[in-house]
Design goal:
By secondary structure, this protein is mainly beta. The protein contains no helices and 15 strands. The strands form 3 sheets. A 6-stranded antiparallel β-barrel has the order 3-4-10-9-14-15. Strands 2-1-6-13-12 form a 5-stranded antiparallel beta sheet, with no helix packed on it. It is globular, with a radius of gyration of 17 Å. The relative contact order is 0.25.
């Protein structure tokens, strides 16, 4: 029996193994029962002078610094204290639907990330009109939150938060090298709120 060819990528199917547009999804956030919702990234402004950057070849941050997101709250909210995410990397896209254009996982300098271990989960502090957190690879301070991952299929991972989150603002952080077009480091944040 010939296998049916997949002709499009989903943006909201609750079935984890259905091919999705690359990105991070939360299943059943408030108001989206029975569907996944894509967590659209925002870019963090990095405080000048706060980084001692030594970017690795994949564009990951070796140092630490303060990331600042505009707006006091994330657009996606959930009441779940230990939310589950599904991550779809470029490898998950069927061959007939792959594009050679940069995707959400481009990390600068022609590199892409392909594993959830290249992400950090942090809590952001709400300030007047914005949110801030200290970020950096292998960060070990009050902002970092541990998670576990499970490979479901090539390029598809389930990410589970390993603790109960208190109400507040959070984000999965992807480091990006040279994102602003001037060779400076920045961070792409997949932000969400726990209510």
């Amino acid at each position: 029996v010939k296998k049916k060819q997949i002709t499009h990528l989903s943006n909201d199917s609750p079935e984890p193994l259905v091919p999705h547009v690359p990105g991070i999804y939360m299943i059943n956030p408030s108001g989206f029962i029975g569907k996944m919702r894509r967590v659209e990234p925002v870019y963090a402004d990095l405080k000048k002078g706060s980084f001692m950057m030594q970017a690795a070849s994949m564009g990951l941050m070796g140092g630490m610094g303060d990331a600042r997101i505009k707006g006091a709250r994330a657009l996606i909210q959930t009441t779940l204290r230990s939310p589950t995410f599904y991550i779809y990397f470029d490898e998950s896209v069927p061959e007939n639907l792959r594009s050679h254009a940069p995707t959400i996982w481009s990390s600068g300098g022609g590199a892409t990330i392909a594993t959830p271990q290249d992400l950090d989960l942090v809590k952001f502090e709400q300030k007047k009109g914005h949110r801030e957190a200290r970020i950096g690879k292998r960060l070990k301070d009050k902002h970092e939150i541990l998670f576990s991952t499970e490979l479901l299929a090539p390029g598809i991972y389930r990410l589970s938060v390993r603790s109960h989150l208190q109400p507040g603002q959070y984000g999965l952080v992807q480091s990006v090298r040279g994102n602003d077009g001037k060779g400076r480091n920045s961070a792409r944040i997949f932000d969400f709120e726990v209510g």
